[in-house]
């Protein structure tokens, strides 16, 4: 069995404002093994990005607060390490690709300066070698006129160009773990395919990846294992094949039914999940998916389901998990 690289246990993250207090991540636990790609999926507002930022202690405090939990990276708890140690790990051993490129790129420095500085912080290389390494990586993410772009400021480049530069900066240190939060949102489909090919190459070099997305098609193409998140909690976990062939939580089932399929024929409407993700300030009692669930019954209104094992490595938090999944038919 592959070695466990990251183990997250009972992670709880809350936010407090003048008007409200709520949990954005509620008692979340999962593992990532060496060399695997784990997909974290769910609609916007489910807590995916907050979970990812918490792993590297990037949650602004206040208003955020990591209330509880452990984040064991190579058996060291990142939540207990001093910030100097955590900063050394960021970028070198764990890299993050942010959803918004300007979250990671300084508007006051040229692209080349930022890339060279990132390399020299973690590697004892002369500026000339760091510059060439940066140029090489801009080529790998298909940046045209790379030398010219090295002298540009971020605001002089398109959003897609900024995104590719940020991806290059995350990959070039050959980290042990990449946290990718919707990494190709601003890119066209051709560049998306090229970026995902780069990520696959990183996986072959034993890099682990936590891929945050709402696109189940990307999950099918990229992931070994899947975590499904809804309303701040993990509601299903399993191997990619188990999730797609035998979804055991109604939310997972609904996500898969909403994937467009060529076999559906012309003119058919896409399946949609009725309603919206509830606000973390006002989660319903019992199962948080109950008001959108076609299978909900009285127990769902009064009792929150716990994650229960269904088979080896496959878990679901549903009162009727495993009772209806065999009759489901998911089209891809």
Given the C-alpha coordinates, what overall shape results? Answer: globular
- CATH homologous superfamily classification of the largest domain: P-loop containing nucleotide triphosphate hydrolases
- Terminal Cα span: 30 Å
Q: What is the correct CATH architecture of the largest domain? A: 3-Layer(aba) Sandwich
Reading side by side through the largest sheet, how are the strands ordered?
6-7-8-3-9-10-12-11
- Helical fraction equals 25-40%
Task: List low-pLDDT spans.
Answer: 326-332
User: How would a crystallographer describe the biggest sheet?
Assistant: 8 strands, mixed
Look up the CATH topology of the largest domain. Rossmann fold
> What is the overall pLDDT average?
88
Oligomer: single chain
SSE-based structural type: alpha/beta
Number of strands: 12
Q: Please, how many domains?
A: 2
What is the helix tally? 11
**SSE sequence, one letter per element:** EEEHEEHEHHHHEHEHEEHHHEE
Portion of residues in beta strands equals 15-25%
For this structure, what is the CATH class of the largest domain? Alpha Beta
Provide structural commentary.
This protein has 332 residues and is an alpha/beta fold. It has 2 domains: 4-223, Rossmann fold; 255-332, no CATH class. The protein contains 11 helices and 12 strands. It has helices spanning 48-55, 83-89, 111-122, 127-140, 146-150, 159-171, 189-204, 216-222, 240-245, 250-257, 298-302, and strands at 4-16, 21-33, 37-41, 64-73, 76-77, 94-97, 177-181, 208-213, 225-230, 233-239, 308-311, 314-316. The strands form 2 sheets. An 8-stranded mixed sheet has the order 6-7-8-3-9-10-12-11, with helices on both faces. Strands 2-1-4-5 form a 4-stranded antiparallel sheet, with helices on one face. A hairpin with a 2-residue loop joins strand 4 (64-73) and strand 5 (76-77). Helix 4 packs across helix 6. The longest helix has 16 residues, at 189-204. The protein is globular. The two termini are 30 Å apart. The model is unreliable at 326-332 (pLDDT under 50).
């Amino acid at each position: 069995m592959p070695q466990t690289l990251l183990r997250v246990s009972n992670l709880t993250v809350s936010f407090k404002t003048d008007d409200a207090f709520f949990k954005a991540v509620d008692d979340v636990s999962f593992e990532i093994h060496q060399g695997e790609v784990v997909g974290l999926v769910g609609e916007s507002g489910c807590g995916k990005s907050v979970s990812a930022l918490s792993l590297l202690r990037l949650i602004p405090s206040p208003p955020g607060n990591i209330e509880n939990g452990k984040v064991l990276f190579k058996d060291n708890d990142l939540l207990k390490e001093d910030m100097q140690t955590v900063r050394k790990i960021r970028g070198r051993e764990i890299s993050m690709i942010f959803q918004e490129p300007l979250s990671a790129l300084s508007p006051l420095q040229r692209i080349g300066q930022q890339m060279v500085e990132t390399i020299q912080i973690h590697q004892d290389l002369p500026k000339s070698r760091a510059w060439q390494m940066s140029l090489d990586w801009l080529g790998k993410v298909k940046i045209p006129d790379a030398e010219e772009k090295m002298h540009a400021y971020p605001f002089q480049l398109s959003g897609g160009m900024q995104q590719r530069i940020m991806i290059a900066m995350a990959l070039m240190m050959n980290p042990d773990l990449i946290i990718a939060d919707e990494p190709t949102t601003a890119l066209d489909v051709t560049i998306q395919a090229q970026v995902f090919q780069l990520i696959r190459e990183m996986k072959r070099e034993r890099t682990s990846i936590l891929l945050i997305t709402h696109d189940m098609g990307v999950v099918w193409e990229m992931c070994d294992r899947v975590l499904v998140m809804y309303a701040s909690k993990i509601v299903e976990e399993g191997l990619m094949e188990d999730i797609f062939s035998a979804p055991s939580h109604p939310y997972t089932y609904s996500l898969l039914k909403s994937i467009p399929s060529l076999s559906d024929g012309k003119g058919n409407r896409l399946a949609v999940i009725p309603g919206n993700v509830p606000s973390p300030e006002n989660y319903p009692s019992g199962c948080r998916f109950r008001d959108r669930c076609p299978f909900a019954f009285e127990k769902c209104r009064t009792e929150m389901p716990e994650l229960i094992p269904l088979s080896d490595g496959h878990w679901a938090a549903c009162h009727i998990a495993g009772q209806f999944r065999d009759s489901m038919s998911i089209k891809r």
